[in-house]
Design a protein that fits this description.
It is built from 13 helices and 15 strands. It has 384 residues and is an alpha/beta fold. The chain folds into two domains: 241 residues, 4-Layer Sandwich (Purple Acid Phosphatase, chain A, domain 2); 133 residues, no CATH class. The N and C termini lie far apart (49 Å). The relative contact order is 0.10. The structure holds manganese (II) ion (MN). Manganese (II) ion binds next to loops. Pfam families: Metallophos.
């Protein structure tokens, strides 16, 4: 038997990152590119391992655009099988997964069970809450039941999962212990950096990754975004990673106490970016500085018209001087600064650090108008 399919995951349709419609369009651009590839390659089907939508309440426009892409697949006779991820499963009490709507337009939802398609058993387990996982001491019993009910024990068994596994998520499930023998292939969503497939016993495992940046950090920046073309022939999985070209370029620059250097770095990186993509990049500026402020950077951006060449600036500065003065005031404890007061009622250390960062950022502006402008350009400042 031979079969050819596309493994995709974490498309997060409808995510207007940074509050920008353009970012929402980017997520659709790469999704369309994936569908183009499926059609060009004449694959037998697509597996989607969760987080199809960014939220469980996508807008009508997002639903309509998703349905348009499903129509293209239907016309090309390519079925798509999917599970819900943590982003789009709905909270079960208040509402159902929006993928249930797409079932009426040809999407095959495999939430906790199997479908039998042309001699292949395609199984899926949607994202489960931490409570459900604790109650069942993992996901193994779900997977064992799926296998028990398999319509054809000798068929090729493909599985989709969307869950947290070691080592990508600390203190999470151990894939080796959770998966019973009997699945030939597992496509896993949730972890956003695409990995190469590996063998676990007789099972081929692939962490698919996301198709666009939902978060941008040092860990993700050096990895491409893409999808996976899988060819199963003579009992072996042959594999090809296909990079998606329509993704938005991201640039990261380390900010030092030198505005001239920043200008030079920015110019260089923008030129490089325009060589690989006609999309204006998102620019991440980060640094530990003493003598320059957000305001200085915004003044530079405006004076040199960088706004015209960049989709969005995401700036985050840590001010060495501010941190030092905070430590001093904490130790002598003469008057209680707001940071000290906050510690009394913010138990969570991450939350505390986040709030302190926000305050430090806002302190560098002189007027409310400046703060408003900054918040408009960096709406994710308050994301927790
Ligand atoms: Mn995701």
């Amino acid at each position: 038997m031979s079969v050819k399919f596309l493994q995709i995951s974490d498309t997060h349709l409808g995510y207007n990152q940074y509050g920008l419609k353009e970012r929402g369009e980017d997520f659709f651009d790469v999704f369309k590119e994936a569908i183009d590839i499926a059609i060009d390659e004449k694959v037998d089907f697509i597996l989607h391992s969760g987080d199809f939508f960014h939220t469980s309440r996508p807008s009508n426009e997002v639903l309509l655009n998703a349905i348009d892409q499903l129509k293209r697949l239907k016309e090309a006779n390519i079925p798509i099988f999917a599970i819900s991820g943590n982003h789009d499963r709905g909270n079960q009490v208040r509402d159902i997964s929006p993928l249930k709507i797409l079932e009426n337009f040809g999407l095959n939802l495999v939430e906790n069970g199997s479908l039998y398609y042309e001699g292949i058993v395609i199984s899926g387990l949607k994202y489960l809450s931490k409570v459900a996982i604790r109650e069942h001491k993992g996901i193994k019993d779900f997977l064992e039941k799926i296998l028990e009910k398999s319509p054809d024990k000798n068929a090729l068994h493909l599985l989709m999962l969307h869950a947290e596994f070691e080592p990508f998520f600390p203190n999470s499930l151990n894939l080796n212990k959770e998966v019973p023998e009997g699945f030939d292939y597992i496509g896993i969503g949730h972890y956003h950096i695409p990995q190469k497939p590996f063998l676990m016993g007789n099972t081929t495992v692939l962490y698919a990754g996301s198709t666009e940046f939902t978060a941008y950090n040092e860990k993700e920046e050096n990895y491409p975004k893409g999808i996976h073309l899988i060819n199963y022939q003579d009992k072996e999985f042959d594999y090809k990673f296909l990079e998606l070209k329509r993704k938005r370029p991201f640039i990261r620059i380390n900010v030092e106490d030198n505005l001239e250097k920043l200008e030079k770095d920015l110019k260089e990186k923008l030129e490089e970016s325009y060589e690989i993509s006609d999309k204006k990049p998102v620019v991440i500026l980060k640094g530990n500085v003493k003598n320059i402020s957000y305001k200085d950077i915004y003044t530079l951006i405006e004076a040199k018209n960088f706004n015209e060449k960049v989709l969005h600036f995401n700036i985050s500065l840590t001010n060495i001087f501010e941190t030092e003065s905070l430590v001093e005031s904490l130790s002598d404890n003469k008057e209680e600064p707001i940071e000290y007061k906050l510690k009394e009622f913010l138990d969570d250390e991450n939350l505390y650090n986040h709030v302190i960062d926000v305050i430090a950022t806002l302190k560098t502006f002189d007027t409310t108008d400046e703060v408003k402008k900054y918040l408009k350009e960096n709406p994710n400042l308050l994301d927790i």
